[in-house]
Amino acid sequence: MKKDFIEILYENRKFVIIFSILLVIVGVLIFTYFSTKPSEVLENKVTTTLKLFGPEKVTLALNEEYEEIGYYAVDSTGKIKSKLVNVHSNLDTTKPGIYTITYEIDNVVKTRTIEVLETQEYIPPSDNITLSLKGDKVINLSIGDNYIEPGFIAFNNDEDLTSLVMVDSNLDTSKVGEYTITYKLSYNGIEKEVIRTVIILDDSLNIIINKSQSGYTNSYVTLNVTVQGDNFVNLVLPNKVVTSLNNTTYNVTTNGTYTFTAYNINGKSFTKSISINEIDNESPSGTCNAIINNDSTLISVSATDNLSGIKSYDYYDNNKKIITSNNNTYIHSAKTSKYVNVTIYDNANNKKDITCTIMDNSYLPPITPGSSETIVKKGETDTLKVYITKVGSYYITRVWAYDPYNQLNKFDSPEYGSNLYKPSALLNKAKSAYNLTNDLLVGFNASGFYLKNTYDADSVAKYSKYDKTSVGTLVITNGKVIRNAYDKAYKTWYTFGIDKTNTLKIFTDSAGTSSSQISTKKEWANKVINSGIRNTFTFASPLIENGKKSSKTTSMPSASSKLNRQAICQIDSNNFALITGSSLNRTDLQNIMLNLDCQTGTNLDGGGSIALLYQARGSNKLETIIGNSRALTEVAYFSE
Fold first, then answer.
1. What are the Cα distances from residue 452, in Å, to 187, 455, 470, 487, 597?
2. In order of start, what are the domains of the chain with their CATH numbers?
3. Which residue, 35, 64, 247, 456, shows the most beta carbons closer than 10 Å to its own?
4. Strand, coil or helix: what is 397?
5. Helices (H) and strands (E) in the chain, counts
6. Using 50, 70 and 90 to split pLDDT, how confident is the model at 17?
């Protein structure tokens, strides 16, 4: 049996519902498209306004002549189109009736109704007095224009009555609007009047100029130019190029005044000028002085710039940048090298590199031996002075160093186990590694120990970066940090070195050797590292602190036993003393240091480890003054 239409729809109801929904959506989209599209087109379309002056309905007597009252037309761009208006009329004043005058332009239509009365016939005036206007009855002006009167004439037959005409006006050319000028003549009881309409339109253009940047530049300034106004036609750039774009850019490469001229659709011009003085292609100039003190450097710059002014200074020490600053003086909290330079920047990013004149006040004068002392060795250079004297069973080595922080160094043994080297052999290796041949040198035992008999080399080898560590938890050599394995704890007693202020510092390691104290050892090691010391020397114990005998109790060296001893002390920031010899105990070392005015002093390793080495300037021969009998892991030395 065939299914009827209702049954088919029911069985396919899901499809029908979906299809219906799609139809509704498509319908909405089509409606939206066609309902919005005309308005979108209209938004960009030029529109025309048409206006009639006077009444829209005029009454005339039979046979009276009609005189057009006036009209004007203007489009949305400001163009005056009154002369393009089409005027049509069926007016016939010889016949009574109602007539129309039609005004049409750009599909805009206006009408005026003229009624000619049947009951009244126009009778020409019996007088011969006339009053008429010269020029147009409707005059269009731009806002701000000057109104120039076209003129008017009045006659009584051949008699000129123009001088009797009174003119009344509310015209204001500074404001947009419609204004009337009324011309009146009163003569022999007869009144005459005519009206001229003046329309003030806003067809002005506004030129806006913005700079791309507010500060100075050493390249160019980009000007963003915008012309506002509906009746814009073109813009003449300062280089005489003409563009029809009302938004454009113009690049300026030299300072000066730049003028832009815009024209509207009626040919009227508008100008705007801007002065540019932000372009600076000239580098600044200046001089610099650097006063080097013992623990700081005062750098002073005198700089000038002809246009943009000084912005900042980059300060350099030996070609390494210290800081960027806005100040022309800078105190560097460290003693610089003897080469200081500054880069001056102006606000246009031009720069000038200058080298500073150095005034070095950083060093204290060398302390030379007294007249009662016999000088064994003497060497003097600009940066290192060494005087070795013999006093009884020991030697006093006075060392003056210009920059102790960088001049006191050490050299580590490259091997462990039994293959160690005597201090002289290590120092010869240092001479070769660091090109110290023919330099003035004084070397001594650095108090380092190799790892043999502390824990065997095989167990240390697995800690690759710790495998050259002396007794203790920390060694710093020429700025390189080497630590012991963190799962071991070894007592260091004391470590000393010279920090960046050229001060000899002694660090006390109070932790024991148990694994529970590993964290304390780490803290101690970090404290030493953070002090900025370049080289550490271990197996030390304090002898002099703050110019007095140290109150710390240590077993090395003994206060009573007289043995081979070696110690170092600092007198001031540039002067040091080494004490090396036999038959000395702790008290002897302290007394010698106090007699030398030492402020800080520490013991070094004694016994067979003492060593005092010397190389004269210009000689490649390293001399042993005393000791040098035992192989060591490290050697310390002052070099020029």
1. 140, 6, 10, 18, 39
2. 46-124 (2.60.40.10), 127-203 (2.60.40.10), 206-276 (2.60.40.10), 285-360 (2.60.40.10), 376-462+536-639 (no CATH)
3. 64
4. strand
5. 7, 46
6. low
* CB hemisphere CA count around 52 (13 angstroms): 18
Residue with tokens 């123009």, as numbered in its chain: 162
Helix (H) or strand (E) holding 496: strand 494-498
CA separation for the pair 618, 377 (Å, rounded): 14
Strands (E) in 265-307, as ranges, are 269-276, 285-292, 297-304
Checking if the pLDDT of 516 tops 90, the result is no
Alpha-carbon separation of residue 489 from 376, 415, 454, 510, 514 (angstroms): 44, 23, 11, 12, 6
Count of alpha carbons within 13 Å of 563, Cβ hemisphere only? 17
Element (H, E) at 97: strand 97-105
User: What contacts 135, CB < 8 A, 6 or more positions away?
Assistant: 150, 151, 196
Position 154 scores a pLDDT of 95
Instruction: Give the separation between CA 356 and CA 289, rounded to whole angstroms.
Output: 5
What pLDDT shows up at residue 27?
57
First to last CA, the chain: 121
Q: Note the pLDDT tens digit of each residue in 42-66.
A: 345 788 889 998 889 999 999 888 8
pLDDT digits (tens, 9 = 90+) for 394-409: 999 999 998 899 999 9
Residue 9 has φ and ψ, to the nearest 5°, of -60, -40
The closest alpha carbon to 423, from 574, 598, 578, belongs to 578
| CB-based contacts of 460-469 (< 8 A; 24+ apart in sequence) | 460/416, 460/485, 467/416, 468/412, 468/416
Which whole number is the average pLDDT over 6-34?
Answer: 52
